[in-house]
Design a protein that fits this description.
single chain, alpha/beta, eight-stranded parallel beta barrel, 12 helices, 8 strands, 44% helix, elongated, binds 3-methyl-2-oxobutanoic acid
Length: 285
């Protein structure tokens, strides 16, 4: 899929062929360009931007307008991946009409291809309403950060029979409602495996083990650009936070020591022009 735009049909074909689907978050033009260049299948403009980009305590406070602002920037940089806009808290919970309107804004104003929203059986009618309006929806079950107060913290979900069974029912209800794919977040690997076997749509795991049809990570976690905490399920492929601080410290030292800017960073002026300028200034004083 190197040069062509990824579609939901491509993702379904990958599941059926047993090919792993790759997905990362991106939040702005540079991360959009980087993820596109790495040939990742799906970009999620996640509401995690509330924490990793905007510095909020959690994802609950991010607004539709903030999300759309970041979606547009990502879309300017990323041309090939399928672009998923993450519907923020309270943009789809009130009623189906508002949910459809806000989902539509992600496509019309945010240049996204599809939307994602959190919730299981409770959200299935909303998913159906958005899909019926012509907008593909990715579901998100397990640890759903927008319900952090209800869940009582960032905890693994579905560890006992009743909660695992509820997750399986959620997944089946979302598939039935027309979701084209499901995010499974922070659930035991065997539960994710059962769900991935039982639904015919692709599952994308984050902290859900190796048996999902694809994997997603928050790009700031993967490259080490978020220093508040690192969840157990994250693999850090780079650690750029200390690298950036080192570069900034070096810059500070160079400025203080007057070794930056050097001649190679400065614009010269012809000797004749300079002489003439000085002479003119001399004449004025
Ligand atoms: O907002 C986000 O980044 C997400 C991922 C964790 C799936 O929802």
């Amino acid at each position: 899929m190197a040069d062509k735009k990824v579609t939901i049909v491509d993702l379904q074909r990958k599941k059926e062929a047993g090919e792993a689907i790759t997905m990362l978050t991106a939040y702005d033009y540079p991360t959009g360009v980087l993820v596109d260049r790495a040939d990742i299948d799906i970009i999620l403009v996640g509401d995690s931007l509330a924490m990793v980009v905007l510095g909020y305590e959690n994802t609950v406070c991010v607004t539709m307008d903030e999300m759309l602002h970041h979606c547009r920037a990502v879309a300017r940089g990323a041309k090939k991946p399928l672009l998923v806009g993450d519907m923020p808290f309270m943009s789809y919970q009130v009623d189906a009409r508002e949910a459809i309107q806000n989902a539509g804004r992600f496509l019309k104003e945010g240049s996204m291809d599809v939307v994602k929203l959190e919730g299981g059986r409770d959200m299935a009618p909303t998913v159906k309403a958005i899909v019926d309006a012509g907008i593909p929806v990715m579901g998100h079950i397990g640890l759903t950060p927008q319900s952090i107060s209800k869940l009582g913290g960032y905890r693994v979900q579905g560890k006992d029979v009743a909660t695992a069974k509820a997750l399986i029912d959620d997944a089946l209800a979302l598939e039935e409602a027309g979701a084209f794919s499901l995010i499974l977040e922070a659930i035991p690997s065997p539960v994710a495996e059962i769900i991935s076997d039982r639904v015919s749509i692709p599952t994308i795991g984050i902290g859900a083990g190796p048996h999902c049809d694809g994997q997603v990570l928050v790009i700031h976690d993967l490259i080490g650009l978020f220093d508040r905490f690192v969840p157990r399920f994250v693999k850090k492929y780079a650690d750029i936070f200390p690298t950036i601080i080192e570069a900034l410290n070096e810059y500070r030292q160079d400025v203080i020591g007057r070794s930056f800017p050097g001649p190679e960073h400065s614009y010269p002026m012809g000797a004749e022009a300079l002489e003439a300028l000085l002479a003119e200034l001399d004449g004025e004083s």
